[in-house]
Write a structure and sequence with these properties.
Layout: E1 3-10, E2 27-32, E3 38-44, E4 51-56, H1 77-80, H2 82-87, E5 90-95, H3 114-130, E6 135-140, H4 143-153, E7 161-165, E8 190-195, H5 205-214, E9 220-227, H6 248-260
Parallel strand pairs: 1-9, 4-5, 4-6, 6-7, 7-8, 8-9
Antiparallel strand pairs: 2-3, 3-5
Length: 262
């Protein structure tokens, strides 16, 4: 039976300041996926992991991971929140574009492709050899397109759950509209998280409502809405309501709690 829930989490900008930042170690790792292809990643693990969250950034999907554990692009909501997931008992795995897509990024329909899903399948398999805990896929903005694609295509070896945040829900020249995908094929527990005032034109809150409704075959689906925070730049960039600016501690705590109870 499908269980549905709608959770409204109303927060204030200062709430995100309650939890202090702590230092954490970023570990570099390479995952061999399709023949000749490597997916580099940064991993932040708590002492006693309770779950793994594979984090998919938006935009072109290029993070610029380096073997010394640093990254070129770190302002994205999920990339910037890797330590927050670890502090909530969840291993954070920030993945970069695969080696054959570093120039073009995850453009031209790659996020919706079987090749991308195969990379993710093999990455999940490798992580299961290391961590004996549930493995979730968490995407933001265009990263949610990657996560939905994996949820649709990986029926034989699915992840344990999906989280779609600030998802694309409008037609646009770069594609990636989650509502164009066969969401009814997803069966894994799925959380849809969105800011009520996300005014990026391709990610309105109304689209999140439609996405939740289209997930008709999942074992458990919920829509989690947030309010508050602040906006410091373009409404489609990371430092805005689209990227949960000023709310990231609260949002990650809420997502982590949902993951750990489902």
């Amino acid at each position: 039976m499908i269980r549905r829930a709608v959770a409204f989490v109303v927060t204030l900008a200062l709430f995100a300041l309650v939890v202090p930042e702590t230092t954490h170690a970023d570990e570099y790792r390479e995952f061999v996926t399709r023949p000749g292809v490597i997916v580099p990643a940064i991993i932040v693990a708590p002492p006693q992991p309770r779950a793994v969250a594979v984090l998919f950034t938006g935009g072109r999907g290029v993070v610029g991971v380096k073997p010394d554990g640093t990254m070129r692009y770190t302002s994205n909501f999920l990339v910037a929140s890797r330590g927050r997931f670890a502090r909530n008992g969840i291993v954070a795995v920030v993945i970069d574009a695969p080696s054959d897509r570093r120039q073009d990024g995850l453009e031209d329909g790659f996020r919706e492709s079987r090749y991308h899903a195969e990379d993710i399948r093999l990455l999940i398999w490798a992580l299961r050899q290391t961590y004996d805990v549930p493995i979730w896929l968490v995407g933001t903005s265009r990263g949610s397109t990657s996560v939905a694609n994996a949820g649709i295509r990986l029926q034989a070896a699915p992840p344990d759950g999906l989280v779609l945040t600030s998802s694309i829900s409008q037609e646009n020249r770069r594609g990636g509209n989650v509502l164009d995908m066969n969401l009814a094929a997803i069966t894994a527990p799925t959380l849809v998280a969105h800011h009520l005032k996300d005014d990026c034109w391709v990610t309105p809150y109304s689209g999140a409502v439609e996405i939740e409704s289209a997930l008709s075959k999942t074992t458990y689906v919920a829509l989690m809405a947030f309010d508050g925070g602040k906006q410091a730049e373009n409404s489609c960039k990371s430092l805005s309501h689209h990227g949960f600016l000023g709310l990231r501690d609260a949002v990650v705590r809420a997502i982590s709690a949902w993951i750990l109870t489902n």
